[in-house]
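To the wet lab folks,

You asked to see what we're planning to order before we commit. Fair enough. Below is the target structure as tokens, and below that is the sequence we designed to fit it. If anything looks off to you, flag it before the synthesis order goes out.
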């Protein structure tokens, strides 16, 4: 079963249990991957977080029922997961642009977010530059920060983390420490769900051996086989596009599976294209 088929099973599960309190662990179990990787893959392929997808679908069903029935707004609020009519009305207005009472009078003004269907289409004509490499275990040093991966908080936080690393001079410091095992700066996502539920750790780091410099932390990337992809085109759009290609085209077309250790984004310098390193087995 490839990742696309797994995601379809997870989407079917979400649709069947939209009015229930689903956990991310229950949803990800349908796709047979960790909650961290499920949420990351889902967001990359659909450009929306899992929580936002569920919220949009619930509010779409709520609008349909509001228009087609005379049920009280307070009853609909409770049915679709809101504790109070006020919180329901606020979310409803944010999605549909009008209050529930207005929608009941003017049914043409609501927005419909339909059930998501992920399909494999005929692709692959556009070449993907990559190579397979074997890499022994190596140590990295850098800065790290924990983020919740609920509702896209990690995406916003990571962008700010990079900006802070640039303005503080941390990027330059890490470039100077690099030992050449993998040249440049690394962006590393580490799943922390077993330690802290719904949490990930992000590192801005560089390969390094020796005593850990003051103010930095270290950890070891296990030995692995890697598929290394070059990013072509203007950033950050080209990076996001390549991630989608890897998930939706490369994995279904090749005999490899994800090795289950952190992936790497590699930034070697201003005159070299960034790379994505995917651990494979």
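Sequence we intend to order:
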């Amino acid at each position: 079963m490839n990742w696309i088929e797994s995601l379809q099973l997870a989407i079917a599960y979400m649709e069947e249990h939209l009015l229930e309190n689903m956990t991310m662990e229950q949803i990800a179990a349908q796709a047979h991957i960790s909650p961290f990787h499920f949420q990351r893959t889902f967001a990359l392929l659909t450009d929306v977080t899992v929580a936002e997808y569920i919220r949009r679908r619930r509010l779409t069903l709520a609008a349909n029922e509001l228009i087609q029935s005379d049920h009280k707004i307070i009853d609909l609020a409770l049915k679709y997961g809101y504790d109070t009519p006020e919180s329901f009305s606020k979310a409803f207005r944010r999605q549909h642009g009008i209050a529930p009472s207005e929608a009941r009078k003017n049914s043409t003004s609501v927005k419909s977010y339909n059930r998501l269907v992920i399909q494999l289409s005929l692709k692959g004509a556009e070449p993907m530059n990559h190579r397979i490499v074997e890499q022994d275990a190596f140590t990295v040093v850098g800065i790290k920060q924990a983020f919740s991966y609920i509702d896209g908080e990690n995406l916003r936080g990571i962008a700010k983390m990079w900006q802070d690393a640039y303005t503080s001079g941390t990027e330059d410091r890490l470039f100077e420490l690099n030992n050449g095992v993998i040249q440049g700066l690394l962006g590393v996502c580490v799943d922390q769900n077993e330690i802290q539920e719904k949490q990930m750790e992000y590192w801005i780091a560089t390969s390094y051996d020796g005593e850990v410099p003051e103010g930095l932390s270290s950890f070891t990337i296990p030995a692995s086989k890697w598929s290394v992809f070059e990013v072509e085109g203007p950033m950050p759009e080209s990076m996001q596009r390549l991630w989608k290609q890897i998930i939706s085209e490369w994995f279904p077309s090749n005999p490899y599976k994800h090795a289950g250790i952190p992936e790497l984004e590699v930034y070697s310098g201003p005159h070299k294209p960034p790379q994505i390193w995917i651990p494979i087995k």
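Structural context that might help your review: The beta strands are 130-135, 138-148, 185-191, 199-207, 217-221, 224-230, 264-267, 275-280. The longest strand covers residues 138-148.

Thanks,
Computational group
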